[in-house]
Design goal:
Blueprint (H helix, E strand, L loop, with lengths): L7 H26 L7 E8 L3 H17 L3 E8 L4 H11 L5 E4 L4 H6 L12 H5 L4 H4 L3 E2 L2 E2 L7 E3 L1 E5 H6 L15 H14 L4 E4 L5 H13 L17 H15 L13 H9 L3 E6 L3 H8 L7 E5 L18 E4 L3 E4 L6 H13 L23 H5 L1 H6 L1 H8 L7 E3 L6 H17 L5 H16 L4
Parallel strand pairs: 1-2, 1-3, 8-9, 11-13
Antiparallel strand pairs: 3-12, 4-5, 6-11, 7-9, 7-10
Helix pairs in contact: 9-10, 9-17, 10-17, 10-18, 11-12, 17-18
């Protein structure tokens, strides 16, 4: 024992404790100076619908973004277009909703009113993103004072596809040998009948009925004919109107009076309708501007030439017109980016959407896509309209755009809470009942008026 009363063993222990404490303190200091490893934020994108070439491009976008942003990981998943509403609502109920979705603008009002979307005009750089788009197209995502989405293209309605070879065989040509394009309802029925007679086995005019997309086409013809879902001043439904009944009567007459459309159209959806046209089964077919999108998806090379044209206008001679100004085209941006309100990573989700737009990738959503051509998608941005590959594929639409005529009288597809239920259920029932002569147009649209008032919760 030394003079201070500790043994050598105790001294060693004390020294060891001091050394350990010192090194531990040093270790703590060194660790405290190290920056914590950045956490990777994972966001999920559900892509509703689309065609194969778009899915390839979407996965490529995700891969490129993830390479450039090591702290953000985007996960892409494809979801059914036909079940999009049910899938999205169920995901909110079960707490499994993603951060980002891409879907249509027709349902925008429905989901905004349900509190599902986040307004994008509150994010930094929104004005830069907005400036990329043709004004008429960006307005498709404008609702109640905010912009809620970023489109990639738009689908325009109503349009028809015309079999050029069948028209020529039936003698439907002018003095220069160019086919006659129907511009009125009377010409539509006349040309359909002549083409059907001149091409035995072919249907004069085919149109779809049973699904949401099919009723978007019907709705577009109604708006072209001066109809509206809601009165602009009162906000109340106005479907018990001559504009709606006239289009339903035209559908009926194409089947029952002119006999240029089969009764089976009541069960023919838009996809089968276009497929039948591309297989040479009909002279003309109703659709949107996405005819070539479906053609590329089906990988059909037609042995005949065909062209696309706007749906003919009603002169008012044989069918009444509505009380409102006619709309030349309604536009639905069917692959629009939205950020969901339940997302915990809204800033990261916006970073991805903004990256897609500001790096020119929205501008390449078309024939010039780096992963291979995407056909049948009408441009939303100025860059897309300048793409020479687009001009080569759709010279007619490009000409209308460059002349400033394409968007004259056009407007975004109608959107409000309850419209999806009306388009998916009540309107198809009304149209079908008129075609099958279960109800007159007056009876069917009186019932639709009552259904619309109930859905919207307003009195007539």
């Amino acid at each position: 024992m030394n003079k201070i009363g500790i043994t050598k063993i105790q001294a060693v222990i004390v020294i060891a404790v001091i050394v350990i404490a010192a090194t531990g303190g040093l270790a703590y200091y060194l660790l405290s100076q190290l920056k914590p490893a950045a956490q990777v934020v994972e966001i999920t994108w559900w892509h509703f619908g689309g065609i194969g070439s778009e899915h390839v491009y979407a996965r490529w976008l995700v891969e490129q973004f993830n390479k450039e942003h090591p702290n953000i990981k985007v996960k892409w998943e494809h979801k059914s277009w036909m079940q999009k509403r049910d899938i999205l609502i169920s995901s909110f109920i079960t707490g499994t909703a993603p951060d980002i979705i891409t879907q249509d603008t027709g349902s925008l009002g429905d989901f905004v009113e349900m509190g599902y979307y986040v307004p994008l005009d509150n994010f930094i750089d929104w004005d830069k993103v907005k400036a990329l788009f043709v004004p008429e197209v960006i307005e498709t995502v404008h609702y109640k004072g905010h912009y809620w989405g970023v489109p990639t293209y738009f689908d325009g309605a109503p349009f028809i596809a015309i079999n050029v070879d069948a028209f020529k065989k039936a003698g439907l040509v002018d003095s220069q040998g160019n086919i006659l394009i129907p511009t009125t309802w009377e010409e539509l029925t006349e040309y359909a009948k002549k083409c059907q007679e001149g091409n035995p086995g072919m249907v004069g005019f085919s149109f779809p009925v049973p699904t949401y997309n099919d009723m978007v086409m019907f709705e577009a013809i109604v708006y072209q004919n001066g109809g509206r879902w809601l009165d602009p001043e009162t906000g109340k439904p106005v479907v018990n109107d001559s504009a709606w009944k006239a289009v339903a009567q035209l559908y009926h007459d194409l089947v029952r009076v002119y006999k240029v459309s089969p009764e089976s159209v009541v069960d023919l959806d838009y996809y089968k309708n276009i497929m039948a046209f591309l297989q040479g089964q009909s002279c003309m077919a109703l659709g949107l501007t996405w005819f070539r999108a479906i053609q590329s998806e089906l990988n059909i090379t037609t042995p005949f030439k065909w062209v696309m044209a706007p749906f003919p206008m009603n002169t008012g001679k044989n069918y009444p017109r509505g009380r409102y100004p006619p709309v030349s085209m309604i536009m639905d941006a069917t692959t629009t980016f939205y950020i969901l309100s339940v997302s915990r990573h809204r800033n990261e989700a916006w970073e991805f959407i903004k990256w897609v737009a500001l790096n020119g990738y929205t501008g390449k959503w078309g024939p010039g896509a780096p992963t291979g051509p995407i056909y049948g998608r009408t441009p939303a941005t100025y860059d897309q309209w300048k793409d020479p590959k687009w001009k080569e594929v759709e010279p007619y639409l490009t000409k209308l755009f460059e002349e400033g005529k394409l968007f004259q009288g056009a407007q975004p597809t109608p959107t409000f809470r309850g419209i999806i239920e009306l388009l998916e259920k009540h309107l198809p029932d009304a149209v079908r009942s008129v075609i099958l002569e279960q109800k007159t147009a007056d009876e069917a649209f009186k019932d639709l008026q009552q259904a619309a008032e109930k859905v919207l919760g307003v009195a007539g």
